[in-house]
């Protein structure tokens, strides 16, 4: 499939080299392209116009180059966009969730890019539109709505937005009787707030100069932002600060955590003047989370060696660890993912043998049962209920061939009611597609799950092209869920595959631990093994596999490009974390200190430095042949800064020995999540898929 002649023979942008050396642990590294990191990067996040003109000129040259090389795919991009848009019900609406006298939901209007928030009377009736995202974002090149949370008295709503893509969210308060915003406004937040019990004030977290959520404030309605009271400040830059509320509106949860340690403080929701109360102090490697169950808290934790987690309980008036009592025992290989409690039932979501299921326990009798499901590979979501005194919870189900179905489930009678099946307006017949779960042998003998879907007419003889997706970090599992976009590839003869590599929790907590820090290379070799297994089983061939991953999955793309370039016919790296060692050495960047538990700390540890340096994609580019590569980024991205892929692309072009092009597309008006509207995002997906189809020689529409 690798055929550089499919691209016009245009000269790629040339990058100036300005060598800068850095010595750590007795090792000297030279970075020729460090100048692409704007010295005023924090200002650029707030105002992209402040970007150094020389850097802007270089990025615009990159955009011009990739546009020229992809010019012939524009009709295909439009066709793909139309197909994907045609599978979306434009005036879609969620099933409203009951809470008190109302039921709340979200909807879209035909042609609308942004969600709208509405409510109806509890048992149905006319909708009242509370907030129209399209109206609020009108005229802005970037606009992203955050959460919208109604107050306990149902008279007000906190809502947030980001209009730069840099994740500095502004919060506003809307009067739901007048459907107008009040004067209340707070800036530089993480996007959400939690009401107090009286509905006359709310808690929120604010990011600091390094874009880290480190301070908790209380805002009293009617008061200026400058008078908001600081409740808690986290001094350790390696920890994130978050805030949440209990379903009974009794407590505010102050959540402090990194990727392996957590600490929770409690504030009575009816009195912001009371000092926060500590539940359990942070212990390295110990995680826990709370849900309120009337007179007790239920605590999901990995304490005392419960690697795959267990559930404990403690009295609400004495929640300290010394009072924790086991409720659901730890079982190795059964990972507990989340839990919630209601007046008569305890509910949790677990994963065993790579598949999720929902467990329900009667709090009085102790009787348990599971919600049974059948398919070979599927995705399950536990939405629960906004109300505590209920027997009915909500869950969602889908597979790679089955559109999402939303159910209400009565925990007492065990009856399920189908509320909604995802509509595909242009049509979808599940019988037209085949889904499978494969197990690929890794070099060390582990079996890596691979979920695949393809059209039933696709010949399984090694000739089909394949898009192989991977992530593998932070314990995030990629569900085998329904994806209408990938059908555009399947309908054109592609096999769409997801490799559930180590670094996620797809096979339990061990699966995560064996793909992080000094085990990180397992993530890369697992992905390579998945590609090799697809070839061995006759699904595709190596020169017809296009690898895809984003963010930490983009780091995976950079690593496999260095480690096994002949295994892939092309690579798509979206917002790729490829300058690993430089980023983890820069403790001024937003995510660096909190990420040390995931990747290691190369500042203090020579071992971490050497191991990280051995796989960091930017540092390991060599003078050898690489497959065609596409990198995609956003200028205002605070998570993976734009200069990471910019530097990587420059170094690839400098050293590689082949004629395969390296393309770099950067959205100059967006951040980590790309374009903000639902259809604008589809345009980006259409571009990426057109690139994969171009590599496969399938540009005929």
UniProtKB/TrEMBL annotation:
<keyword id="KW-0645">Protease</keyword>
<keyword id="KW-0720">Serine protease</keyword>
<dbReference type="GO" id="GO:0004252">
    <property type="term" value="F:serine-type endopeptidase activity"/>
</dbReference>
<keyword id="KW-0378">Hydrolase</keyword>
<dbReference type="InterPro" id="IPR001375">
    <property type="entry name" value="Peptidase_S9_cat"/>
</dbReference>
<dbReference type="Pfam" id="PF00326">
    <property type="entry name" value="Peptidase_S9"/>
</dbReference>
<dbReference type="Pfam" id="PF02897">
    <property type="entry name" value="Peptidase_S9_N"/>
</dbReference>
<dbReference type="GO" id="GO:0006508">
    <property type="term" value="P:proteolysis"/>
</dbReference>
<feature type="region of interest" description="Disordered">
    <location>
        <begin position="1"/>
        <end position="24"/>
    </location>
</feature>
<feature type="domain" description="Peptidase S9 prolyl oligopeptidase catalytic">
    <location>
        <begin position="481"/>
        <end position="698"/>
    </location>
</feature>
<comment type="similarity">
    <text>Belongs to the peptidase S9A family.</text>
</comment>
<dbReference type="InterPro" id="IPR002470">
    <property type="entry name" value="Peptidase_S9A"/>
</dbReference>
<dbReference type="InterPro" id="IPR051543">
    <property type="entry name" value="Serine_Peptidase_S9A"/>
</dbReference>
<protein>
    <submittedName>
        <fullName>S9 family peptidase</fullName>
    </submittedName>
</protein>
<feature type="compositionally biased region" description="Basic and acidic residues">
    <location>
        <begin position="15"/>
        <end position="24"/>
    </location>
</feature>
<dbReference type="InterPro" id="IPR002471">
    <property type="entry name" value="Pept_S9_AS"/>
</dbReference>
<dbReference type="InterPro" id="IPR029058">
    <property type="entry name" value="AB_hydrolase_fold"/>
</dbReference>
<feature type="domain" description="Peptidase S9A N-terminal">
    <location>
        <begin position="16"/>
        <end position="421"/>
    </location>
</feature>
<dbReference type="InterPro" id="IPR023302">
    <property type="entry name" value="Pept_S9A_N"/>
</dbReference>
